[in-house]
Amino acid sequence: MACLALTGCAIKHSPTPDDTKFKESQRDWLTIYGDELKIAVENDDKESQYFFIQEIMKMQFPNLPPNPNLKILNQ
């Protein structure tokens, strides 16, 4: 029984940094920006709202200028 207690929970594989390496191809920026925009709206952070709306627009409409002018209505 004591042997089971000493070896039953032993880790057989030590994690390495490569095990947790992030794959850039799996990142969904549109979802990330959408989530951040929701947080900015909840916190009434106008600067963050402007930034994330601008980033979302750049992804949705790639032919726009790099930093399109935006006016947020209903403020």
In percent, how much strand structure appears in the residues? under 5%
- Low-confidence stretches are none
Number of strands: 0
Work out the radius of gyration: 23 Å
In DSSP terms (H or I, runs of 4 or more residues), the helix count works out at 3
Shape, principal axes of CA atoms: elongated
Structural class, please? Answer: mainly alpha
Give the integer mean of the pLDDT values. 81
Order of helices and strands: HHH
Q: Tell me the span between the first and last alpha carbons.
A: 68 Å
Helix content: 40-55%
Characterize the main sheet: none
Features:
mainly alpha, 75 residues, elongated
Characterise the protein shown here.
With 75 residues, the protein is mainly alpha-helical. It has helices at residues 2-7, 29-42, 46-60. The protein has a domain at 26-75. The chain is elongated and about 60 Å long. It starts with a helix and ends in a 15-residue tail after the last helix. The mean pLDDT is 81.
Task: Explain briefly what this protein structure is.
The protein is 47% helix and 0% strand.
Task: Provide the fold topology.
Elements: H1 2-7, H2 29-42, H3 46-60
Helix pairs in contact: 2-3
